[in-house]
């Protein structure tokens, strides 16, 4: 069986990592795998099968909407041609635009769309191009053979807000390579070792609006008053990096960005190919996101037994509180079965030294937690316990069942 996996690029994104892992799953199922990216990008992740490029420039958010639409149409033509040339039986697509294009180029092959976001909350799709794309999603998604959503919350969003039929949707979360993560976590920290001689709060992800890192900076500033040796490590790159660095400095935090290591409060360490060695030596992982379908980074952190505090912003509930209603959203601190859930931040930010009501709840929880070794150890054990549900064998069986059907 010939299977094509199409995605924007095999870059450092979580989506690309999921596509890479899927290629190996399909290869293990004796499929002939073809990785297809939209534009030229040296593969960041390893992959199974052959590699192809549509060679269409990426559409950028700041581009003229008309130009983005023209590029959208060019990708349709390029995708139709490569489907024909490779004679694919199944085409699995990643990203909303490519999902629509996968359906619009459908012929005899089966189409499987993967879904990795809470689409109705995606602020990137509020311009003319985004509104057209969301309209196309409503019109086209029900024509797909299947839709694979990484979480119940993301699936329910499609059903409620985009009129997708429940019968089209299958829930298959991303897998976690636990043994690989543990092995990589043993690597030397190198020049960053002095940071982790102190208690460290760590967060990781794209430095974008949806990840909400600026709220964490404000909370951390107040935490430093009680825990003067506490450090905050931020891993990742993104369009808000300079803004976040300036915000950190503006509220009086000593901020490290690059070069020779200095004794600082906040460390922006950029994208790290091996974040696991940093996770392993941290006291607490915090995810302040405004929306998440199923954050892979939380699962990777839990594989190392790190306690997790996260906003109840979507799929985080399904990881940390799987026995609860995935559509429920807490308004207060929730000591869930496998981690701690907190309210999602609102958009209103107070003065530099004055936390909002939601920020204050986060601060009080973290203040108590950092002083509670028993609670930290408890959630460390629960993290290791939870990760077994995302093993390669379990996820591979789900994909095998879907492919056979």
Automatic annotation (TrEMBL):
Domain called Glycosyl transferase family: residue spans? 197-322
Concerning InterPro entries, the annotation shows: Glyco_trans_1, Glyco_trans_4-like_N
Residue ranges of domain Glycosyltransferase subfamily 4-like N-terminal in the record: 14-179
The superkingdom listed in its UniProt entry is Archaea
Under CDD domains, the record lists:
GT4_GT28_WabH-like
Q: Which Pfam families match?
A: Glyco_transf_4 (PF13439), Glycos_transf_1 (PF00534)
Q: Which SUPFAM superfamilies match?
A: UDP-Glycosyltransferase/glycogen phosphorylase (SSF53756)
User: Which molecular function GO terms apply here?
Assistant: glycosyltransferase activity
| Stated name of the protein | Glycosyltransferase family 1 protein
């Amino acid at each position: 069986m010939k299977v094509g996996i199409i995605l924007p690029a095999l870059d450092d994104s979580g989506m690309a990592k999921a596509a890479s892992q899927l290629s190996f799953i399909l290869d293990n199922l004796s499929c002939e795998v073809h990785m297809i990216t939209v534009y030229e990008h040296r593969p960041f992740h390893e992959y199974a099968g052959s590699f192809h490029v549509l060679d269409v420039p990426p559409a950028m958010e700041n581009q003229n909407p008309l130009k983005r639409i023209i590029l959208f149409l060019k990708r349709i033509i390029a995708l139709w041609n490569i489907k024909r040339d490779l004679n694919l039986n199944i085409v699995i697509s990643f990203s909303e635009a490519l999902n629509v294009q996968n359906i619009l180029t459908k012929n005899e092959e089966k189409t499987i769309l993967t879904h990795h976001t809470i689409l109705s909350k995606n602020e990137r799709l509020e311009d003319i191009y985004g509104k057209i794309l969301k309209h196309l999603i409503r019109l086209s998604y029900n024509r797909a053979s299947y839709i694979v959503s990484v979480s119940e919350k993301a699936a329910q969003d499609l059903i409620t807000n985009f009129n997708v039929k429940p019968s089209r949707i299958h829930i298959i979360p991303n897998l976690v390579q636990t043994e690989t993560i543990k092995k990589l976590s043993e690597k030397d920290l190198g020049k960053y070792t002095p940071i982790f001689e102190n208690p460290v709060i760590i967060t990781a992800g794209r430095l974008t609006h949806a990840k909400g890192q600026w709220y964490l900076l404000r909370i951390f500033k107040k935490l430093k008053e009680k825990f003067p040796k506490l450090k905050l490590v931020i891993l990742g790159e993104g369009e808000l990096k300079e803004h976040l660095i300036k915000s950190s400095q503006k509220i009086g935090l000593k901020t490290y960005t690059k070069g020779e290591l200095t004794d600082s409060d906040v460390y922006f360490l950029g994208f790290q190919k091996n974040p696991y060695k940093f996770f392993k030596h941290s006291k607490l992982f915090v995810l302040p996101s405004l929306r998440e379908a199923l954050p892979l980074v939380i699962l990777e952190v839990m594989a190392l037994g790190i306690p997790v505090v996260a906003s109840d912003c979507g799929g985080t509930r399904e990881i940390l509180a799987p026995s609860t209603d995935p559509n429920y959203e807490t308004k207060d601190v929730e000591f869930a079965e496998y981690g701690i859930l907190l309210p999602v931040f609102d958009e209103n930010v107070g003065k530099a030294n004055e936390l909002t009501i939601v920020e204050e709840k986060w601060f009080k929880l973290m203040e108590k937690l950092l002083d509670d070794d028993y609670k930290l150890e408890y959630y460390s054990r629960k993290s290791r316990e939870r990760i077994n549900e995302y093993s390669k064998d379990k996820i591979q069986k789900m994909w095998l069942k879907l492919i056979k059907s």
